[in-house]
Amino acid sequence: MTRSHRGTIFLEDGKVLSHASFTGDQHMLRIAAPQAAVRAAPGQFIHLRCDDDIPMRRPLSIQRADSQGGWIEVLYKPIGPGLRALKRVHEGDRLSLLGPIGQGFRMPPEQGARCVLIGGGVGIPPLLFLAEQLAKEQVETVAFMGSELPIPYLNQPSEFALPTPAGATHNLSLLEDWGVPGRLASNSDLPGCYSGFVTGLAREWLKKLDDDQLKRCEIYSCGPAPMLQATQALARDFNLPTQLCLEEYMACAVGGCAGCAVELHTADGPAMRRVCVDGPVFDGYEVYPAAPG
């Protein structure tokens, strides 16, 4: 079997360029990693050694990458000893990382497609990377992001008109800068947000599209499993293609241990796939097949 990931993952000794903290114990880390940065694609991740005394690396989704500046950026919450140790890292420190790893999001195959991004919590970072890439390639995009914590990015009243419920007025400033219309959702009464789950917000928007508009849509999503299940149910209701970026516990993260394997329901029958190198992005209909009957 071809190992398509061989020769594409690099070991780097990255210098910490910045390390910022946000409300809700959320942290953003920017690392100099020129080999990973020039090859990184939305949906991929890095495997980071958080501390010299903790040999097990941690997988973190790539939030942004700058091939010219030679840096990558990740967002994390310090859950577990590894990421708690990462909180102690300062600007100028060195971190060992492997990356970029995985099969990322596939660009829409047809001209005129409209990409609908649905992200929740720590699933927001890879979709920001995707939104930036789609904006550069001038692909029509709309983004819906949800969080129960204050979203660790500047947000503002959107300049883009979207047929969304009253109260959903704000978008992430980065998306506004890139020309990507979007709205935010939360169950925590955050200002400018739709009150409810992000999938509910996306559903309200999709309901207002006509058949021709719906035919152009494809959903790209990342977030916790319950949100991805709700996203796939939404896609099935509107008969839309989906790409889902899965979150899974990983040990080696390079395909050797198969500890992150999940069962997919392919055209050839059930098949086990490794989230780290066969994914983390998969066809949503293979991840969550239609219920029998």
Describe the protein's topology.
Blueprint: E1 10-22, E2 26-32, H1 34-39, E3 45-48, E4 58-61, E5 64-66, E6 71-76, H2 81-86, E7 94-101, E8 114-120, H3 124-136, E9 140-146, E10 155-157, E11 170-172, H4 173-178, E12 182-186, E13 194-195, H5 198-206, H6 211-215, E14 217-222, H7 225-238, E15 242-245, E16 261-266, E17 269-274, E18 281-283, H8 284-287
Parallel strand pairs: 8-9, 8-14, 9-12, 12-13, 14-15
Antiparallel strand pairs: 1-2, 1-7, 2-6, 3-4, 3-7, 5-6, 10-11, 15-18, 16-17
Helix pairs in contact: 5-7
Polypeptide structure, described:
The chain is α/β, with parallel strands linked by helices and 293 residues long. It is 22% helix and 33% strand. It contains eight helices and 18 strands.
The tally of beta strands, per DSSP, is 18
How far is the N terminus from the C terminus?
36 Å
Radius of gyration: 19 Å
H/E element string? EEHEEEEHEEHEEEHEEHHEHEEEEH
Query: What's the level 1 CATH class of the largest domain?
Result: Alpha Beta
Rough outline: globular
CATH superfamily of the largest domain: Nucleotide-binding domain of ferredoxin-NADP reductase (FNR) module
Q: Within the largest sheet, what's the order of strands? A: 4-3-7-1-2-6-5
Instruction: Detail the poorly predicted runs.
Output: none
Number of domains: 2
Predict the CATH topology of the largest domain. Answer: Rossmann fold
Specify the helix fraction band: 10-25%
How would you sum up the major sheet?
A: 7 strands, antiparallel
Q: Give the strand content.
A: 25-35%
The secondary structure category is alpha/beta
* Average pLDDT for all residues: 92
Identify the CATH architecture of the largest domain. Answer: 3-Layer(aba) Sandwich
Q: How many helices in DSSP terms?
A: 8
